[in-house]
UniProtKB/TrEMBL annotation:
It is a multi-pass membrane protein. InterPro entries: Bax_inhibitor_1-related (IPR006214). Belongs to the BI1 family. Residues 41-56 have a biased composition (Pro residues). Its main location: membrane. This is Transmembrane BAX inhibitor motif containing 1a. GO terms for biological process: negative regulation of apoptotic signaling pathway. Keywords: Membrane, Transmembrane, Transmembrane helix. The chain crosses the membrane at residues 124-145, 157-176, 183-200, 212-232, 244-268, 274-295, 307-329. Residues 1-82 are annotated as: Disordered. Residues 57-74 have a biased composition (Gly residues). Coiled coil: none annotated.
């Protein structure tokens, strides 16, 4: 029996796996790495060796190498375009000038007293503050928590389901005075509407950089504060221009549909920026219009029974301003 049939001795077992210290009958394996000055050795089966031909358009390598995905620097896949904001026209109340029983408008004399007006405004802004707190809390989670960002990116069907809920509840609250005025159904519908709108806002925000979200939030806060202060102090009566605001609502609705159709075929940054700029301006004007309807010191005002309607209109204006500013910042940075 030869020596090679026995287990290696003490000296042989301590020999390094690679190098010249192995047994002459069992030379160390070489996996394609040539010794100094030598030639490459044959590779064993199953060894993948040096970089093999990789992704399309790549001479041989990995993502991040030149020539990866066509047209993308660094070989990474192209970023997904975030969903467009809801293309629903702004809320415009229907005028009823008889006995203060309007679904949206009431004449200025419809206010019973100054105390009624102050209580109404206080109630509307308390509801509005709750809505904004929920919405921006969800936006913060969707922006900072990476697993949540990955979840919403992989499940776009939930976004469109929330859009359907948003659309239905919005139509019910705007067009049906019964559910809108009947407690507690009005608050339940408003809560469902707020959660759906919050999910949509958080989903859109998750596609943008954290700095862009913070910048959009800061700009929205300053704009809304300035518009509200202006609406309380100015002598200009925006409530007289209901026809103009109807036209603006139709324009932003049609423009949104056209923009979504065009961008679904080819992403055009300047078109996205133009649509976002128009939307931000239009909803800023609507915020001033709805704020004056809420205050009640102009030609028309919202009936004091319509606290849900008042909170709904201003909430939609603020969220839409935030979304359009966020898209404007995000599109300009690409």
């Amino acid at each position: 029996m030869s020596r090679s049939d026995f287990p290696p001795g003490y000296d042989d077992s301590r020999a390094p796996l690679y190098g010249s210290g192995g047994h002459p009958a069992n030379p160390p394996p070489s996996y394609g790495f040539p010794p100094y000055g030598g030639q490459p050795q044959p590779q064993p089966p199953g060894y993948y060796g040096p970089p093999q031909p990789g992704y399309p358009g790549q001479p041989g390598g990995y993502p991040g190498q030149p020539g990866g995905y066509p047209g993308q620097p660094g070989g990474y896949p192209p970023p997904a375009m975030p969903p467009m904001p809801p293309i629903i026209p702004p809320t415009i109340p229907v005028s009823h000038n008889d006995s203060g029983d309007g679904e949206g408008f009431a004449a200025e004399s419809g206010w019973d007293s100054m105390s009624v007006r102050q209580a109404f405004i206080r109630k509307v802004y308390m509801i509005l503050a709750s809505q904004l707190l929920v919405t921006f809390g969800i936006v913060a989670v969707f922006t900072f928590v990476e697993p949540v960002k990955e979840f919403v990116a992989k499940n776009p069907a939930i976004y469109w389901a929330s859009y359907a809920v948003y659309f239905v509840t919005h139509i019910v609250l705007v067009c049906c005075s019964g559910p809108r005025r009947r407690y507690p159904w009005n608050l339940i519908l408003l809560a469902i509407f707020t959660l759906a709108m919050s999910y949509m806002t958080g989903t859109i925000s998750s596609y943008y950089d954290t700095k862009a979200v913070f910048l959009a939030f800061g700009i929205t806060f300053v704009v809304c504060l300035a518009v509200s202060a202006f609406s309380f102090q100015t002598k200009v009566d925006f409530t007289k221009c209901k026809g103009l605001f109807c036209v603006l609502g139709i324009v932003i609705f049609v423009t949104g549909i056209i923009t979504v159709i065009v961008l679904s075929f080819k992403y055009i940054p300047w078109l996205h920026m133009l649509y976002a700029a128009i939307g931000a301006i239009v909803f800023t004007l609507f915020l001033a219009y709805h704020t004056q309807l809420l205050i009640g010191n102009k030609k028309y005002s919202i009936s004091p029974e319509e606290y849900v309607f008042g909170a709904l209109t201003i909430y939609v204006d603020i969220i839409q301003i935030f979304l359009f500013i966020l898209q404007l910042i995000g599109a300009s940075s690409k």
